[in-house]
Amino acid sequence: MKHISYFYSAENEPEINLEIWKVFMNNSEAEREIHFEYTGIVFDIQLGEVGKADLPELVETLLDKNGMEALPVLVVNEEVYKYGEFSVIDAISELLDVGVSIQVEED
């Protein structure tokens, strides 16, 4: 089981990143079973907004050392996996062994 937690600042986090995480968080049981059949990966995802969510000590320590520039922080199985500026798409692809593609409509 991969326990994935994503801690972010609402002021600085692009909405698209949160929407990508929510797609995987809201997978139905059938979708999760199909994912497991093909990848062997079972996962749980939680989003935590800094200032509203209780932060694990390792995230608090990272923020104390680096300030808000450490955000976002991606924690997997109680270890910091990535922090600061990184591609959410690449991180999800690595962690869940899936390809992620997005289309954004231009205004």
Question: In words, what does this structure look like?
Answer:
With 107 residues, the protein is α+β, with helices and mostly antiparallel strands. It has one domain: Glutaredoxin, CATH 3.40.30. The chain contains four helices and four strands. Strand 3 and strand 4 (79-83) form a beta hairpin. The relative contact order is 0.23. This is Arsenic metallochaperone ArsD family protein.
Question: SSE string, helix = H, strand = E?
Answer: EHHEHEEH
Number of domains: 1
Number of strands: 4
What is the overall silhouette? globular
Main β-sheet, in a few words?
Answer: 4 strands, mixed
What's the CATH first level?
Answer: Alpha Beta
Major beta sheet, strand line-up: 2-1-3-4
Radius of gyration: 14 Å
Helix-and-strand structural type: alpha+beta
In CATH, the architecture is: 3-Layer(aba) Sandwich
Report low-confidence residues grouped into runs of 5 or more: none
The CATH topology annotation reads as: Glutaredoxin
- Average pLDDT for all residues: 94
Termini gap: 40 Å
What's the helical proportion of residues? 25-40%
Tally of helical segments: 4
% residues in beta strands: 15-25%
Organism: Listeria swaminathanii
Protein name: Arsenic metallochaperone ArsD family protein
